[in-house]
Give the backbone structure.
Amino acid sequence: MANPKKGTSQERNEFVWGWIFILPTMIGLIVLNIYPIFKTIYESFFKTGDFGRGNIFIGVENYAKLFGDAEVWQALINTFKYAIVEVPFSIVISLVLAVLLNRKMKGRAVYRTIFFLPMVAAPAAIAMVWRWLFNAEFGLLNHIFGTKINWVSNPSIAIFSIAIIGIWSIIGYNMVLFISGLQEIPGDYYEAASIDGATGIKQFWHITCPLLSPTIFFVMITRVIGGLQVFDLIYMVIDKNNPALYKTQSLVYLFYQNSFVENNKGYGSTIVVLLLAIIMIITVFQMWGQKKWVHYS
Amino acid sequence: MKIKRLIAAGLTATMVVGMLTACGGGSSDGGGSKKKGDTLTVAIWDTNQQDGLKQIMDDFTAETGIKTELQAMDWNAYWTLLEAGATGGEMPDVFWMHSNEAVKYMANDILLDLTDYVAKSEKLEMDKFPQELKDMYTWKDKVYAVPKDRDTIAMWYNKKMFDDAGIAYPDGSWTWDEFYEIAQKLTKDDGSQYGFACNPSNEQDTWMNIVYTMGGTIVTDDNKSGFDDPNTIKAMEFLDKCIKNVMPDANTMSETGTDVLFQSGKVAMISQGSWMVAGFKENDYMVENCDVTRLPKDATTGKSVSLYNGLGWSASAGTSMPDEAFQLIEWFGTKEMQEKQSELGVTMAAYDGASEAWAGGAEMYNLQAYIDAMEDTVFRPHTNSTLAWWNPMVEELKKPWNGEESMADACKNITSIMNEKIAEEDY
């Protein structure tokens, strides 16, 4: 925006109105996001007292404890396992669906609605339904397959079961983003490619993928962040008696447990600061890596 | 053009003002409760009790003209709300207190000091409430809550399974060893039926009762862990035998929950607290097939011990209507309303002798077992910050449940975890 002192009255006007229009969002961001970030970092250096009173400064003691805490590192591994499964699968599946649903076909709106529906349902309700689908004793999945698999209480597979729920719930949202990206690709490219003899698969790799790469990049950035912050599915599906809890709890779950159940907000803050740092590093790498594969036309 | 701009400016201004007031509303009160004119807000965590308590509160409004508003939520949401409320200064006026959390709230002056009110009250008969319950809600000689209810534990069994196996129904005179034999008979080899079920988190309602019945303890009199007590270890070893031989595997119990396993005819017996009865009355399968009896006794002492706990009604220290809030708490504590609470089937009463109506209110079950259990009770174990060791204790017990660790080792580990956490307590 131009410097208002030098500009014409119209420029000055635009400057003022511009700020007024983004003010509500800015206030929301500052009050609900930015202030809490700094408050959390601040609290991670304290042994917090009850009800926010009597906090004692303990320097980096929480961090020292964090680095020696096997539970935290296990939670970090769990979180990564979840994200590594959820992000690629949800992107690939929704990309394929988006391409299929971007053609002229009967019942297109119906299919789009069906795939988007999980996004509209409350995550808690989704988790409850899946919890019963996965139930080893009475669950539909074991009933259909005739198996006796402990989907959500076998420590070695429970986190992947959770990831399946995650993929299922996010596909619709990714798909809508991909469809909007696909619609921006001019049809002439495909026409020209057809004339030159390119098959559908070739068109997908050489036209769709490069031209859709900004959207794929956006979805990837947001999904990696979202995947690393997984909490509600684990919280709803994994009971505290569950033998798989130790191998499924995510960093945010551990943060919740420490901050709100065991009332140790200082250590809870330390755990999320670790998560914040990890997410920032990964995002920086992704931003840097995009030069290699994202094509902005 | 100008009109459009004016409208836009107006809209923006309302949005901004709206957000500012929404965010600032909490702090402008300076720690006081939400001013809602003449309405007392009441918060509880058990939706099963909502309708009954609503009736009692309606009577209160009819009698005094003070309006009330009841909010019921689940346990986790309740404590999150209460803690956030206490930190930000926006609490309900009247709410429940639990032995897990009471000390934290009392020690930080979050609760209204009821000492003088209780002393002056003409309606309350404090000597009719159990002493341990009153002590629980007293901190440094100040009273912070009036007892609301109490609960005991009893054993539920599936009559049909007993019939099929040709075993007589338990009449409450059994011992834990006899219980184990019955459970073994009721456990089928093909895994279609088990004698008993209990999760690590069924502490108050199941395994801690065995510990106290066999002469053990969870917390000793000098505030140390009781998990190194030989009797505690004996009880835990007995439990371990049950886990290995007469219970479904830990995965099944944690996924499905012991009460659901019982209600779906997978398990012959579960031990449950009286707070579950309201829900059990609604379950058709249980009404048809199940009944309840007293917990087994210890063979040597001949005693059957039930844990008990009770909630208290407390008020926010920052309430704008302290007198009215106490009037409501007093109302809940009177003999008449304690009896009404039993009659309506909400819970057993904290008031001595006012629970009979509760047992009579369900002809399908022998709820007298819960009343009889009051003969020999131990108050739910607690220290000043119970939660700090309670969850790690349950977490550690998951290991013997899964067979990852012996019960003896788990008891050793719990002893050190508890002693460490109790030593850190700073009240």
